[in-house]
Amino acid sequence: MSDKTFSSPVRVSVGAMGLRFVASAWEALECLKNQWPQQDGLEYKRAVRINRDALEGWMTPAKARQAFVKAAQRAGVFIDDSPPK
């Protein structure tokens, strides 16, 4: 299992960590499992599954990133997904 890097980081604001740039499927899973405000709901579960599948090579990094963005939007922690300047 190897990490899959996103095309560009996703910026989220989570708990005590505050602002965080998530740049890969591994980082997305770590964030979802350890810092997410609510660990339930369809978008959360879908993001966990798809990012895990990306690490296993069953899903593309683009799909994993998209699922993470949707979960972040749903949870109210999404800030930005444009490339950093």
UniProtKB/TrEMBL annotation:
It comes from Phyllobacterium sophorae. This is DUF982 domain-containing protein. InterPro entries: DUF982. It comes from the Bacteria. The lineage of its organism: Bacteria, Pseudomonadati, Pseudomonadota, Alphaproteobacteria, Hyphomicrobiales.
